[in-house]
Amino acid sequence: MALAQRLPSVDLFLSAAAEEVLEIYKLPIDGLKPRFRVFRDKTASSVPVGMLYDDVYHTVVIAPASSNTVAKCALGISDSLPTNMFAQAGKLGLLGIVFACDTEPVVVTKSPHDWVTLRPRRIELDNVERLRAIDFCEVVASPQQLEAALDSRLRELALAWNTSSS
Questions:
Q1: Would you state the pLDDT for residue 165?
Q2: pTM of this structure
Q3: 8 Å CB contact between 95 and 58
Q4: 44 to each of 29, 51, 72, 80, how far by Cα in Å?
Q5: Distance between CA atoms of residues 51 and 62, nearest Å
Q6: Residue 87 dihedral angles phi and psi, to the nearest 5°
Q7: What are phi and psi of 59, to 5 degrees?
Q8: Which H or E element spans position 138?
Q9: Half-sphere exposure of 74 (CA within 13 A, CB side)
Protein backbone atom coordinates (compact mmCIF):
# COMPACT_ATOMS: atom_id res chain seq x y z
CA MET A 1 0.00 0.00 0.00
CA ALA A 2 2.96 2.32 0.62
CA LEU A 3 3.98 1.93 -3.03
CA ALA A 4 0.42 2.48 -4.23
CA GLN A 5 0.30 5.75 -2.30
CA ARG A 6 3.38 6.97 -4.18
CA LEU A 7 1.93 6.22 -7.61
CA PRO A 8 0.12 8.92 -9.56
CA SER A 9 -3.62 8.47 -10.05
CA VAL A 10 -4.25 4.96 -8.71
CA ASP A 11 -7.57 3.18 -8.57
CA LEU A 12 -7.93 0.19 -6.26
CA PHE A 13 -10.08 -2.71 -7.45
CA LEU A 14 -10.77 -4.91 -4.45
CA SER A 15 -11.98 -8.48 -4.50
CA ALA A 16 -13.87 -9.81 -1.50
CA ALA A 17 -10.68 -11.60 -0.44
CA ALA A 18 -8.68 -8.36 -0.65
CA GLU A 19 -11.21 -6.64 1.57
CA GLU A 20 -10.84 -9.41 4.17
CA VAL A 21 -7.04 -9.26 4.09
CA LEU A 22 -6.97 -5.46 4.37
CA GLU A 23 -9.06 -5.68 7.52
CA ILE A 24 -6.75 -8.36 8.98
CA TYR A 25 -3.79 -6.01 8.46
CA LYS A 26 -5.77 -3.12 9.97
CA LEU A 27 -6.14 -1.21 6.70
CA PRO A 28 -9.86 -0.37 6.63
CA ILE A 29 -11.36 0.52 3.29
CA ASP A 30 -12.67 3.83 4.60
CA GLY A 31 -9.08 4.80 5.36
CA LEU A 32 -8.12 4.20 1.71
CA LYS A 33 -10.87 6.28 0.15
CA PRO A 34 -9.29 9.71 0.79
CA ARG A 35 -6.26 8.75 -1.34
CA PHE A 36 -7.68 6.25 -3.88
CA ARG A 37 -10.77 5.65 -5.92
CA VAL A 38 -11.89 2.30 -4.52
CA PHE A 39 -13.96 -0.16 -6.54
CA ARG A 40 -15.36 -3.09 -4.65
CA ASP A 41 -16.47 -6.14 -6.57
CA LYS A 42 -19.96 -6.99 -5.46
CA THR A 43 -20.98 -8.62 -8.74
CA ALA A 44 -20.85 -12.20 -9.99
CA SER A 45 -19.29 -11.18 -13.31
CA SER A 46 -16.64 -8.71 -12.08
CA VAL A 47 -18.38 -5.69 -13.63
CA PRO A 48 -15.53 -3.27 -12.73
CA VAL A 49 -13.36 -5.02 -15.34
CA GLY A 50 -15.32 -3.17 -18.01
CA MET A 51 -13.52 0.00 -16.99
CA LEU A 52 -10.42 -1.38 -18.74
CA TYR A 53 -12.22 -0.90 -22.07
CA ASP A 54 -12.49 2.86 -21.57
CA ASP A 55 -8.85 3.40 -22.61
CA VAL A 56 -8.04 5.04 -19.28
CA TYR A 57 -5.68 2.45 -17.79
CA HIS A 58 -2.19 1.54 -18.99
CA THR A 59 -1.17 -1.02 -16.35
CA VAL A 60 -2.82 -3.56 -14.07
CA VAL A 61 -0.98 -4.47 -10.88
CA ILE A 62 -2.01 -7.49 -8.85
CA ALA A 63 -0.22 -7.19 -5.55
CA PRO A 64 0.08 -9.32 -3.65
CA ALA A 65 -1.14 -12.28 -5.69
CA SER A 66 -1.94 -15.42 -3.73
CA SER A 67 -0.91 -18.82 -5.05
CA ASN A 68 -4.60 -19.31 -5.93
CA THR A 69 -4.68 -16.16 -8.08
CA VAL A 70 -1.33 -17.01 -9.69
CA ALA A 71 -2.58 -20.51 -10.58
CA LYS A 72 -5.78 -19.16 -12.10
CA CYS A 73 -3.96 -16.48 -14.10
CA ALA A 74 -1.35 -18.99 -15.28
CA LEU A 75 -4.07 -21.38 -16.48
CA GLY A 76 -6.33 -18.74 -18.03
CA ILE A 77 -9.09 -19.01 -15.44
CA SER A 78 -10.97 -15.74 -14.99
CA ASP A 79 -13.49 -16.17 -12.22
CA SER A 80 -12.62 -13.39 -9.77
CA LEU A 81 -11.95 -9.68 -10.01
CA PRO A 82 -8.13 -10.00 -10.04
CA THR A 83 -8.10 -12.89 -12.53
CA ASN A 84 -10.58 -11.10 -14.80
CA MET A 85 -8.56 -7.88 -14.62
CA PHE A 86 -5.40 -9.80 -15.52
CA ALA A 87 -6.99 -11.67 -18.43
CA GLN A 88 -8.71 -8.64 -19.92
CA ALA A 89 -5.60 -6.46 -19.53
CA GLY A 90 -3.59 -9.03 -21.48
CA LYS A 91 -6.25 -9.26 -24.18
CA LEU A 92 -6.10 -5.48 -24.50
CA GLY A 93 -2.30 -5.45 -24.62
CA LEU A 94 -2.01 -3.72 -21.24
CA LEU A 95 0.91 -4.66 -19.04
CA GLY A 96 0.05 -6.76 -16.00
CA ILE A 97 2.54 -6.70 -13.13
CA VAL A 98 1.96 -9.58 -10.73
CA PHE A 99 3.60 -9.67 -7.31
CA ALA A 100 3.54 -13.43 -6.79
CA CYS A 101 4.06 -14.54 -3.22
CA ASP A 102 5.25 -18.13 -3.64
CA THR A 103 8.30 -17.74 -5.88
CA GLU A 104 11.16 -19.39 -4.00
CA PRO A 105 11.63 -22.78 -2.27
CA VAL A 106 11.59 -20.96 1.09
CA VAL A 107 9.62 -17.76 1.65
CA VAL A 108 9.70 -15.73 4.87
CA THR A 109 6.64 -13.52 5.08
CA LYS A 110 4.82 -11.33 7.57
CA SER A 111 1.54 -12.72 8.79
CA PRO A 112 -0.89 -10.53 10.73
CA HIS A 113 0.79 -11.57 13.97
CA ASP A 114 4.37 -12.67 13.24
CA TRP A 115 6.91 -13.66 10.60
CA VAL A 116 6.41 -17.14 9.18
CA THR A 117 8.47 -19.45 6.99
CA LEU A 118 6.64 -21.07 4.09
CA ARG A 119 7.84 -23.76 1.73
CA PRO A 120 5.85 -23.46 -1.51
CA ARG A 121 5.10 -26.73 -3.21
CA ARG A 122 6.40 -27.60 -6.68
CA ILE A 123 2.93 -26.83 -8.12
CA GLU A 124 3.07 -23.21 -6.85
CA LEU A 125 6.59 -22.72 -8.22
CA ASP A 126 5.56 -24.24 -11.57
CA ASN A 127 2.55 -21.91 -11.78
CA VAL A 128 4.81 -18.89 -11.27
CA GLU A 129 6.94 -20.09 -14.19
CA ARG A 130 3.80 -20.55 -16.33
CA LEU A 131 2.75 -17.02 -15.44
CA ARG A 132 6.15 -15.64 -16.50
CA ALA A 133 5.52 -17.03 -20.00
CA ILE A 134 2.25 -15.13 -20.52
CA ASP A 135 2.20 -12.16 -22.90
CA PHE A 136 1.97 -8.70 -21.35
CA CYS A 137 2.87 -10.09 -17.93
CA GLU A 138 5.75 -9.20 -15.66
CA VAL A 139 6.15 -11.28 -12.51
CA VAL A 140 7.92 -9.80 -9.50
CA ALA A 141 8.86 -11.66 -6.33
CA SER A 142 9.51 -9.01 -3.69
CA PRO A 143 8.44 -5.51 -2.70
CA GLN A 144 11.79 -4.27 -4.03
CA GLN A 145 11.19 -5.90 -7.43
CA LEU A 146 7.68 -4.48 -7.48
CA GLU A 147 9.02 -1.00 -6.84
CA ALA A 148 11.64 -1.43 -9.59
CA ALA A 149 9.00 -2.66 -12.05
CA LEU A 150 6.72 0.25 -11.21
CA ASP A 151 9.61 2.69 -11.52
CA SER A 152 10.46 1.30 -14.95
CA ARG A 153 6.83 1.49 -16.04
CA LEU A 154 6.51 5.09 -14.88
CA ARG A 155 9.61 6.02 -16.87
CA GLU A 156 8.23 4.25 -19.99
CA LEU A 157 5.06 6.31 -19.67
CA ALA A 158 6.89 9.57 -18.86
CA LEU A 159 5.22 9.65 -15.43
CA ALA A 160 6.73 10.27 -12.01
CA TRP A 161 6.26 9.02 -8.48
CA ASN A 162 3.96 11.11 -6.32
CA THR A 163 6.16 12.96 -3.85
CA SER A 164 3.45 14.81 -1.94
CA SER A 165 2.61 13.65 1.56
CA SER A 166 -1.16 13.81 1.04
A1: 54
A2: 0.92
A3: yes
A4: 21, 16, 17, 8
A5: 16
A6: -65, -45
A7: -150, 140
A8: strand 137-140
A9: 21
